[in-house]
Amino acid sequence: MANEELLKNITEAVVEGEPELVVELTETAISEGIEPIMILNEALTKGITIVGDYFGSGHYYLPDLLLGAKAMDAGVKKLEPLLVGTVREFYGKVLMGTVQGDLHEIGKNIVGMMLKTSGFEVIDLGTDVPASKFVEKVKELKPDILGISALLTTTIGRQKEIIELLLEEGLRDQVKVIIGGAPINGAWADKIGADGYAEDALSSVVIAKKLVGRA
């Protein structure tokens, strides 16, 4: 199978949301000597971009988006050991987590998966994360973007607390802040001084790219 056709088939398998086929085709591409970074950029990334476009236009729905992301992720996992030592260009580094007192993670995990498969390095702190830990990790890891999730009306105030603590520590101008969660809206983002508000996984990718100047 010609390299160009093989890469095209991987792209189509991502678009169709077929993880097992993506793995099989990726293994074939590797065995045929195609550079892992080319498989990543010319097949997997192209596929998830198409999936995102389909979702944005209403042609695909959330389950389709998730299947595409899982298919992409399956291919990336197969390539990761081969990419060690390779300079992989990321759009930026994203540190994310759900605030203290909140154990919701499904939405956060979907956003993290979409950001990762769209070209961002993603570090997930998990759930029930204290404000102090968010700030500690911003100091340590120096992310481009901090994503703060809150799914309860009783915990959204933690987002404000984290931003205020970043200000106190002199870190606010070093990181862009995106907030999200069911009770969150643009007015709340403006009120607490966030740089962006993502209402779903796809918009989080769009906003993240804008914030790092890669839109």
Structure, explained:
The chain contains 9 helices and 5 strands. The chain is α/β, with parallel strands linked by helices and 215 residues long. It is elongated. α5 packs across α9 (201-211) and α6 crosses α7 (157-168). The mean pLDDT is 91. Helices cover 57% and strands 11% of the residues. It has a 5-stranded parallel β-sheet with strand order 2-1-3-4-5, sandwiched between helices. It has 2 domains: 3-82, Orthogonal Bundle (Methyltransferase, Methionine Synthase (B12-binding Domains), Chain A, domain 1), CATH 1.10.1240; 93-211, 3-Layer(aba) Sandwich (Rossmann fold).
Ordered list of secondary-structure elements with their pairings:
Layout: H1 3-15, H2 19-31, H3 36-57, H4 62-83, E1 93-98, H5 106-117, E2 121-124, H6 131-141, E3 145-149, H7 157-168, E4 176-180, H8 186-192, E5 196-198, H9 201-211
Helix pairs in contact: 1-2, 1-3, 2-4, 3-4, 4-5, 5-9, 6-7
